[in-house]
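thread: overnight batch results

M.L. [08:02]
morning all. the overnight job finished for the chain we discussed friday. pasting input first so we're all looking at the same thing
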Amino acid sequence: MKKRESKKTVRLPLKKEETLKKLGERIKSLRIKSGYSNYEYFAYENDISRAQYGRYERGEDIRFGTLIRIINAHGISISDFFSEGFE
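M.L. [08:03]
and the structure it wrote out:
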């Protein structure tokens, strides 16, 4: 009987600040791509606090539920959202 070789995946630890910055950049790029030149209009039309949404785009902490609301507003899936800018 052959011994099965295990493949080990090396995972680097996530860095919170770096990941939040990438989330912010992705959120901003989707907003602009959707035709919103001003983040306040997007936030208002999607019932998100304008001040808080601005913080999200700057890479501050975001609640998962709000991230899902933003992703849904763009009509894309979670996997599509993370397909650009994330490894």
